[in-house]
Amino acid sequence: MFTDRDESGGVRVKVVAEVSLVPVGTKETGVSQYVAEAIRVLHQESEKGDLFYTVGAMATTIEGPIDRVWGAIRAMQEAIFRAGAQRVITTLRIDDRRDKEESIDRKVRAVEKKGVPIERRSR
After folding, report:
1. How far, in Å, CA of 4 to CA of 66, rounded?
2. Phi-psi region of 74 (alpha: psi -120 to 50; beta: other; left: phi over 0)
3. Is the dihedral of CA 76, 81, 82, 84 positive or negative?
4. What is the pTM of this model?
5. Percent of the chain scoring above 90 in pLDDT
6. Which pLDDT score, from 0 to 100, does residue 63 have?
7. Distances 79 to 13, 19, 37, 75, 97 between C-alpha atoms, Å
8. Mean pLDDT over all residues of the chain?
9. CB–CB of 18/92 below 8 Å?
10. In what order do the strands lie in the sheet with 60-65?
11. Which of 64, 78, 113, 118 is deepest in the core (most CB within 10 A)?
């Protein structure tokens, strides 16, 4: 079983999570300003160490100790409320793997090693 230890020897479980936060109750249909506030807070949390993230078109992937991921997602929700949303719908998926260390990069590279392109972007 893979485990990570914190400074005091306690077990830290590292996860990869995908979160989508949707502001509801805004006056406009565009929500990028609310998402930007959430990502700003996530970035601040990541600068404390041990959190990594990738922003996608429809969701954000976060890697780190499970307690830090939970805290970062909660902070992201609060940032959207502070930006003026009246409601936030949060969809969360967590890959909590205990047999070996998991990371965003490892998951992407595992698919890439199968010989398929991992992205094709519009111009």
Report:
1. 11
2. alpha
3. positive
4. 0.86
5. 76
6. 97
7. 26, 14, 6, 6, 29
8. 91
9. yes
10. 52-55, 60-65, 14-24, 87-95
11. 64
Q: Identity (one letter) of the amino acid at 53?
A: Y
- Is residue 95 helix, strand or coil? strand
Model pLDDT, residue 16: 97
Amino acid at 111: V
Helix H segments across the chain?
Answer: 32-46, 66-82, 104-112
DSSP 116: -
**Encoding tokens for residue 36?**
């930007």
Cβ–Cβ under 8 Å, residues 53 and 61: yes
- What is the identity of the amino acid at 42? L
Question: Within a 10 A sphere around the Cβ of 123, how many other Cβ atoms?
Answer: 2
CA 43, CA 53: separation in Å to the nearest integer? 8
Whole-angstrom CA distances from 2 to 66, 96, 97, 99 are 14, 11, 8, 5
Q: How confident is the model at residue 11 (pLDDT cuts 50, 70, 90)?
A: low
CA-nearest of 109, 95, 16, 101 to 60 is: 16
Tell me the mean pLDDT in the region 65-89.
97
